Amino acid sequence: MSNPLIAPSPLPYHLPDFTALRFGHYREAFEAGLEQHRSEIAAITGSDEPPTFANTVVALERAGEILGVAQRVFFNKIGADSDDDLRALEADIAPVLAAHADAVTLDPQLYRRIRAVRDAGGLDEEDGYLVERYLRDFELRGAALDDDGKEQLRLHNTRLAELKTEFGRRLQADTNDSAVLFDDAAELDGLSTSAISAYADAARARGLDGKYLVTLVLPTAQPALASLTNRESRRRIHEAAVSRGRRGNANDTGDLILEMVRIRAERAALLGYPTHAAYAVADQTAATPEAIEERVYPMAGPAARNALAELAVIQERADREQDAAGTERFEVAAHDWAYYSNRVRAQRYNVDTAALRPYFELERVLRDGVFHAAERVYGLSFVERTDLVGYHPDVRVFEVLDADGSGLGLFLHDVYARDSKRGGAWMNNLVDQSTLLGRRPVVCNNLNVPKPSAGEPTLLTLDEVRTMFHEFGHALHGLLADTRYPSLSGTSVGRDFVEFPSQVNEMWIEWPEIIAHYAVHHETGEALDPDVVRQLAESALWGEGYETAAYLAAALLDQEWHKLSPAQAAAVRSIPEFERAALAEVGLLHDAIPPRYSTTYFNHVFGSGYDAAYYSYIWSEVLDADTVEWFKENGGLTRQNGEHFRRELLSRGRSRDPMASYVAFRGREPEIEPLLRRRGLQ
Predict the structure, then answer these.
(1) Per-residue pLDDT tens for 317-364?
(2) Which of 235, 249, 443, 551 is a good FRET partner for 33, with 20 to 30 A between their CA atoms?
(3) Catalytic residue from among 471, 506, 579, 621
(4) Fold of 358-538
(5) Which of 207, 520, 155, 508 minimizes the C-alpha distance to 359?
(6) Maximum CA pair distance of the chain?
(7) Does residue 471 have an active-site annotation?
């Protein structure tokens, strides 16, 4: 049987043939892909023809087809449905891929040819921008180093690839091991029937019939804490979450982190940057760590003040409840915050977010919310393709049609949590859009919603609804791409720009016409009361102090780790001590307000590509909040507005400077005031 990762896919939109895919195909495809790509690069650099855009840069865009398919399919599988064999292969192949990437970007002949194309000029905007992107990438990856420097860089990159892979393996294992087991459903009082059913199924899947297993999501905050009435149950779940990666067992991540921080600092110095933060941000819209210090760090003080003001209100609420129950008062701790914050919101605004779950049934949210908003704004429609198979039985495949009925691409939706899936939520591509290659996009969204028992509805929390809209914003960025070159397509923009379109898509969650369409009680068919929707909007600022402080604590912790010089990085011995000192320095050290991610389970930074870039979410939110203002000023939910946003921004990818796309859309540079108002930071 031919290898489906090597042979061209016969399926619509070049969807990989997962029914034919076997474990052994991965290694074979990597080997064939590496061989093919080396041969293609050698043909470019060995050409006797003078370098031209076509024979050098376009040839690079066409090169590596098999390797690209193998990497996209394999690493999607690693994140969404891994096992021991796949992890072992990842450990083997990651350093090989890192070395191969270095061999390409450090090839002096290839670098000279690209420079010659740039120097010759005469290119249109997109072609010229592509050449500049290649040169920038090659230089950031060490193309200008001498031979000794290049060899040292190869060693650094290979080791970092090994460490990143091992971090992901250990974190996933420890997250699975840290799931909290309860013997009695009474300990889960306050949770919905469907949530308790999902935890019973999770226990049964591990051979623990009759018990309840609360699995953990990636952030510090766990969804169950907002509803659990049992304080001891809340404490157990929270402590399990914050102890991941630091329990002193075989899955402790501390040694990996300290080595990664040191090597990143050393690599930055080798490339001529004072710190890894300076290196990592050089190709982002922020450009320098100083810009982050000027725009992001000053938000910490107001956020902390707002959070502490919320804490005073929450403490008062907790005291009243203990007095009424005749029990001893206690100081509100981190594991109490979500529960009492929800109680305050319910009292002040008559909104209990936990009680909204019956109105957020998964299928309605997806079809009548997420898809409906995309139809209203962009003219898209979605047809489920039950004849097409995803990489796991839970994956659903939808064909996406444009307003004229033409096929736009495929959307794969993978909602449910499982032990084989890493925590969090994300989007990735299986096929990149490119008019050069004649490719339409195939994109995936992954979430981690507990799967209920058979026959039970999947009821979402408000946060899970938000996550679904957010990740679909990334999917739209990929699906609506319309660029010539695959390396400039869709989400191939900087880290501090890529979150912007996904955050914009969150605006439709509570938009009157949209929420009225999907927020329907799954049993009675009753629509969510418009007064509740209004109260949700009025309550938007409640809790923003905590959310902003927790986010900034993580973002600035990331910055502080990566602003270390090589000598400073080598001197760090204790992760907890470094964390506390760093958070105290930025004014965000408070036991009741832990960072959204603590260092030892900060997958964005140590297992993904957000090192020194977690600030990107709030940096992008400046653009997001300013864009929401534009939509409101121009009539809101209209096809005309959607087409303008699609044409000037979503479709462009990185075919031009992303900030130029923003200015073309908005008509001016972004303003920060809408974000400050949104988060109560004026």
Answers:
(1) 999 999 999 999 999 999 999 999 999 999 998 888 888 999 999 999
(2) 443
(3) 471
(4) Neurolysin; domain 3 (1.10.1370)
(5) 520
(6) 88
(7) yes
